Inverse folding.
C-alpha cells in the first residue's frame, strides 16, 4: 500500500522547491502565489512506496478560491498518512495559523521550518525544541532552496505517519476549550474520536459545509455558540481566529529572539529603487526592451541568421534536394519534402535560437524575483482603472504559453476579474507568437522596437479590455485585493534556468515536429492542386487560394486582404507557429530572419506587416487555448462571446492603426477611414463612459452583501 | 513513379502518421493540449476546473446576467488570516 505525504503551506513558502528536491521532479517553481493551482504527485526518492503530494499554497483551511478547495479537500477527503507543513520561518506568525488548523485534523504533522538560512542571515534565532514542545509536533529547520533538511523532514514524516493519527493537542484558552469539549460531546455519537476536534472547531466557526453535514445536531450546538458569542461580545469566527493568534503570538514571543539591530536586507535596498513610485515603470520598460532587443535583434538574431542561412540555407535544404533528385525521386515528392515539410517546419525551427535566448532572460527575471515585483508595480497601474494586479500573474505566466496563463487565473477570487483575465491573458505574446514577432521585426529591419512593443501591446490591450469590460454589468465588481509577499532577490539558479529553458525549447521543437509538420503538409497539398485536383497549377488558382479568397476581403481594410495572409491567420488558430510555417510554405522561404524577412518585406508594406502582426497578437488564440478558456468560463456560449470579443477588439485596433497609419504616413487614404474613425470613437466612449445608475446600484448590492 | 519514389513516399507517410498519432494520443490522454509538458507543469492545465459552487454556494457554471459576485469578502479574509 502506498504511503502518502502531503506538502502543505502558505503560498510561496517553498513547497514546490521542496517537492522537486524530495522527488527529483522538475515542477515549475514560481516566485509568486498561484504557480501551483492543482496537486502534483511524485515518488519520494529512495522510497518506492512513498508518494509525495504537492498541494497549492493556502492561508487557511477555509476555502475561498478553487486552489484552496483543492488543498482542503485533499486533506479532509483523501486522508494522507502524514503532512509536511512548510512554514516560512521569516514570517512565523502568519504561517503558524495554517499549522494550527492542520494540527487540529489529527493527521501526523512535521513542520519544516523553511528559509532558516534567511533567518540566520537576519541575526534572528528560533528555539526549535521550544517550538516543538509548544506545538506538540516535530519541527525541523530546512532550506528548500539549498536542499538542506528536506530529507530529514520526509523521513520523519514516514516515521510518525506509521504511528497513525492521534488526538490533537488542546492548546487554546480554557474557556474556549470547554466550549469545544461540549460540542465534541454532542457530536460524539456520529463523529470518530480522531476527527471530533476538527468538526467541533469548524462547527463553532459555523463553517457552512460542516454545519450542513451535522444538521441534525445543530439545534443543540447553536445555543452553546450563541451564549459564548454573547459572553465574548464577538462572532464565533473571530473568536476562533483570536484564540489561535493569541496562542501563536505567545509561542512566537517565547521561541523567537529577534536581532536588536535593525536589519535592512539587500532586497530591501534594491526594492527602494526597483519598486520606487516614479522609477518602477521606466525600469520595467527598460528591462523588457533590453530583453527583447538582445533576444530578437542582437544575440538571438545573429544565431537565428546562422541557423537559417547556413544550417537550413546551405546544408539541410540543398543537401536534401540534391539527395532526392540524384536518387531519382519524382519532382512533386521532392517539392513536398523540401518546400512543404522542410519549408514549413524549418521556417518555425529557425527561430529557436531567438526563443532560447528570450526564455533564458525571462526565466532569469522570474527566478531572481524581479517578475514578482512587476506584478506589484503593475497593480498600482491596474488598480487605478478598477482592475487587479493579480491579473498580471497569469499574463506573466502566459508569456511562456497562454494555457497555463489562463489556468493561473484560478487564483483570482473575484469572478468578474477572473473572467476578464481569462479573456485577455492571451493578448500577451506567448512563445508560439515569437516566430511571427521575430519574422515581422526582421522584415521591418529599421524598427528595432517592434519586438519589445509586442509585449507592451499585450499589456495595454489587457488594460483597455479590462476598463471596457468592467463597464458591462456581467463583469462589474470590485477588483480582487492583491496581497503578495515579495520574495528576497537571489542569484538565478543555473539548474532552474537550464531545466526550464530546455523544457520550453524541447516542447517548441516537439510541436514543430507534430502539429506544424501536419499543417505544413496539408498547406502544401492544398497549394499544389487546383479545384479539379490537377497537380502544379498556378499558385493563385490553387485550392488554398480559392479558400483564402473567400474571406480575404474581410481583412482588406486592415491592409492584408490577400489570400496568403488570410490563410496564414486562419492556420494560426491550430497553433500560432503555423502562421510562420504557412507563410514559409507559400512565400517559399525555408528559414527565417534573412530569407524570410526579405520574402515578407516583398509581400507586405511596413504598415501592413505591422497590422498583420498586431492582429495575430490580439485575435482569437489557438484552439487549445480556446479549450482552456472553455474550461474556465464554464460554457461554450461564454467562450464564444469571449473569442468574438477578442476578434472584434483586434479588428477594431488594427483598423484604427492601419487606416490612420495610411493617413499619417502620406500613403493616401481609403473610405475605410470613416469606419476607423467610428471604431476609435466607440472605443474612446467605452473607455471613458461612466457606469450607469442601474449598474451602480448593483455594484452597491455587491458591497452590502460582501460586508454582511 | 519510380521505386525509390514509393520508398520515400512510404517514409513520408510514416512520418506524417507518426506525427498525427502523437497529436491524437496526447489529446486522448487529455494532456499536452498546449504543447507544453503537463508532467512538468504546476498549473495542471489538463485538469478539470473545480466546481466552486458546491463549496461556496456561488455560481460556477452559469454566466449570470446579474453582477458577478465575489465568493467572500476578501478583506475580511485578510484580517482573519
Amino acid at each position: 500500500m502506498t504511503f502518502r505525504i502531503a506538502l502543505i503551506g502558505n503560498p510561496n513558502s517553498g513547497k514546490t522547491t521542496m517537492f522537486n528536491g524530495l522527488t527529483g521532479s522538475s515542477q515549475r517553481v514560481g516566485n509568486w502565489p498561484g504557480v501551483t493551482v492543482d496537486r502534483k504527485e511524485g515518488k519520494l526518492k529512495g522510497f518506492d512506496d512513498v508518494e509525495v503530494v504537492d498541494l497549492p499554497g493556502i492561508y487557511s483551511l477555509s476555502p475561498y478560491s478553487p486552489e484552496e478547495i483543492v488543498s482542503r479537500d485533499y486533506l479532509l477527503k483523501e486522508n494522507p498518512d502524514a503532512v509536511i507543513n512548510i512554514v516560512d520561518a521569516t514570517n512565523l506568525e502568519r504561517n503558524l495559523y495554517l499549522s494550527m488548523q492542520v494540527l487540529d485534523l489529527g493527521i501526523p504533522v512535521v513542520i519544516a521550518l523553511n528559509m532558516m538560512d534567511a533567518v540566520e542571515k537576519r541575526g534572528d534565532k528560533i528555539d526549535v525544541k521550544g517550538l516543538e514542545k509548544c506545538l506538540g509536533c516535530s519541527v525541523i529547520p530546512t532550506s528548500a532552496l539549498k536542499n538542506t533538511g528536506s530529507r530529514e523532514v520526509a523521513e520523519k514524516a514516514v516515521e510518525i505517519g506509521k504511528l497513525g493519527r492521534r488526538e490533537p493537542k488542546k492548546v487554546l484558552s480554557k474557556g474556549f476549550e470547554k466550549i469545544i469539549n461540549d460540542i465534541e460531546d454532542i457530536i460524539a455519537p456520529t463523529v470518530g474520536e480522531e476527527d471530533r476536534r476538527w468538526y467541533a472547531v469548524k462547527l463553532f466557526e459555523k463553517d457552512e459545509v460542516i454545519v450542513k453535514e451535522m444538521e441534525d445536531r445543530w439545534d443543540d450546538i447553536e445555543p452553546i455558540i450563541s451564549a459564548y458569542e454573547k459572553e465574548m461580545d464577538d462572532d464565533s469566527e473571530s473568536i476562533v481566529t483570536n484564540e489561535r493568534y493569541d496562542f501563536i503570538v505567545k509561542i512566537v514571543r517565547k521561541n523567537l529572539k529577534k536581532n536588536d539591530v535593525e536589519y535592512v536586507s539587500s532586497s530591501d535596498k534594491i526594492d527602494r529603487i526597483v519598486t520606487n513610485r516614479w522609477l518602477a515603470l521606466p525600469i520595467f520598460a527598460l528591462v523588457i526592451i533590453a530583453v527583447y532587443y538582445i533576444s530578437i535583434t542582437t544575440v538571438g538574431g545573429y544565431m537565428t541568421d546562422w541557423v537559417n542561412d547556413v544550417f537550413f540555407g546551405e546544408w539541410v535544404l540543398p543537401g536534401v534536394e540534391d539527395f532526392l533528385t540524384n536518387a531519382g525521386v519524382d519532382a512533386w515528392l521532392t517539392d513536398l519534402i523540401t518546400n512543404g515539410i522542410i519549408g514549413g517546419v524549418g521556417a518555425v525551427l529557425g527561430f529557436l535560437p531567438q526563443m532560447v535566448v528570450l526564455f533564458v532572460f525571462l526565466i532569469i527575471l522570474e527566478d531572481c524575483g524581479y517578475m514578482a515585483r512587476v506584478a506589484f508595480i503593475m497593480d498600482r497601474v491596474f488598480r487605478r482603472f478598477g482592475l487587479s494586479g493579480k491579473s498580471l500573474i497569469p499574463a506573466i505566466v502566459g508569456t511562456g504559453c497562454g494555457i497555463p496563463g489562463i489556468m493561473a487565473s484560478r487564483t483570482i477570487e473575484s469572478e468578474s476579474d477572473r473572467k476578464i483575465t481569462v479573456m485577455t491573458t492571451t493578448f500577451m505574446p506567448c512563445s508560439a507568437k515569437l516566430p511571427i514577432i521575430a519574422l515581422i521585426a526582421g522584415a521591418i529591419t529599421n524598427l528595432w522596437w517592434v519586438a519589445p512593443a509586442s509585449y507592451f501591446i499585450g499589456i495595454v490591450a489587457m488594460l483597455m479590455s479590462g476598463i471596457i469590460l468592467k463597464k458591462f454589468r456581467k463583469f462589474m465588481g470590485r477588483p480582487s485585493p492583491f496581497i503578495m509577499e515579495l520574495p528576497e532577490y537571489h542569484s538565478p539558479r543555473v539548474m532552474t534556468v537550464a531545466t526550464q529553458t530546455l523544457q520550453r525549447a524541447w516542447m517548441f521543437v516537439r510541436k514543430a515536429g507534430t502539429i506544424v509538420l501536419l499543417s505544413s503538409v496539408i498547406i502544401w497539398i492544398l497549394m499544389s492542386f487546383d479545384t479539379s485536383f490537377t497537380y502544379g497549377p498556378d499558385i493563385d488558382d490553387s485550392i488554398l487560394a480559392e479558400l483564402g479568397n473567400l474571406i480575404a476581403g474581410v481583412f482588406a481594410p486592415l491592409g492584408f486582404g490577400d489570400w496568403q495572409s488570410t490563410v496564414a491567420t486562419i492556420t494560426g488558430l491550430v497553433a500560432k507557429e503555423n502562421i510562420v510555417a504557412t507563410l514559409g510554405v507559400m512565400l517559399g522561404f525555408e528559414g527565417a530572419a534573412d530569407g524570410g524577412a526579405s520574402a515578407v518585406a516583398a509581400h507586405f508594406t511596413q504598415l501592413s506587416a505591422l497590422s498583420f502582426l498586431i492582429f495575430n497578437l490580439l485575435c482569437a488564440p489557438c484552439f487549445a487555448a480556446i479549450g482552456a478558456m472553455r474550461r474556465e468560463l464554464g460554457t461554450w456560449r461564454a467562450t464564444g462571446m469571449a473569442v468574438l470579443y477578442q476578434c472584434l477588439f483586434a479588428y477594431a485596433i488594427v483598423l484604427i492603426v492601419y487606416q490612420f497609419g495610411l493617413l499619417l504616413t502620406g500613403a493616401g487614404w481609403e473610405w475605410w477611414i470613416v469606419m476607423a474613425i467610428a471604431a476609435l470613437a466607440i472605443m474612446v466612449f467605452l473607455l471613458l463612459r461612466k457606469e450607469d445608475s442601474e449598474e451602480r446600484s448593483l455594484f452597491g448590492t455587491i458591497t452590502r452583501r460582501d460586508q454582511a | 513513379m519510380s521505386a525509390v519514389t514509393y520508398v520515400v513516399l512510404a517514409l513520408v507517410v510514416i512520418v506524417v502518421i507518426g506525427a498525427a498519432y502523437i497529436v491524437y494520443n496526447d489529446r486522448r490522454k487529455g494532456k499536452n493540449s498546449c504543447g507544453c509538458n503537463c508532467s512538468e507543469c504546476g498549473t495542471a492545465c489538463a485538469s478539470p476546473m473545480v466546481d466552486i459552487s458546491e463549496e461556496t454556494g456561488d455560481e460556477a457554471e452559469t454566466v449570470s446576467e446579474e453582477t458577478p459576485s465575489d465568493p467572500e469578502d476578501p478583506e475580511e479574509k485578510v484580517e482573519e488570516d
Notes: Helices of chain B lie at 3-28, 52-56, 74-80. Residues 3-28 of chain B form the longest helix (26 residues). Chain B touches chain A through 53 residues (CB under 8 Å). The CA atoms of residues 59 and 67 of chain B lie 11 Å apart.
